[in-house]
Amino acid sequence: MAAPGKAKRGQVALAAENRSKKKADESELLTVPDGWKEPAFKREDNPRGLLEESSFATLFPKYREAYLKECWPLVQKALNEHHVTTMLDLIEGSMTVTTTKKTFDPYVIIRARDLIKLLARSVPFEQAIRILQDDTACDIIKIGSLVRNRERFIKRRQRLIGPKGSTLKALELLTNCYIMVQGNTVSALGPFNGLKEVRKVVLDTMKNIHPIYNIKTLMIKRELSKDAELRTQSWERFLPQFKHKNLNKRKEPRKKNMKKEYTPFPPPQPESQVDKELASGEYFLKESQKKRKRVEEIKAKQAEAISRRQEERNKAFIPPKEKQVVKLKKASTETKIDIEAIKEKVKKAKKKKLGALPVEEVKLKIAADEKKKKKKK
Question: Rounded to 5 degrees, what are φ and ψ at 189?
Answer without folding.
Answer: -140, 120
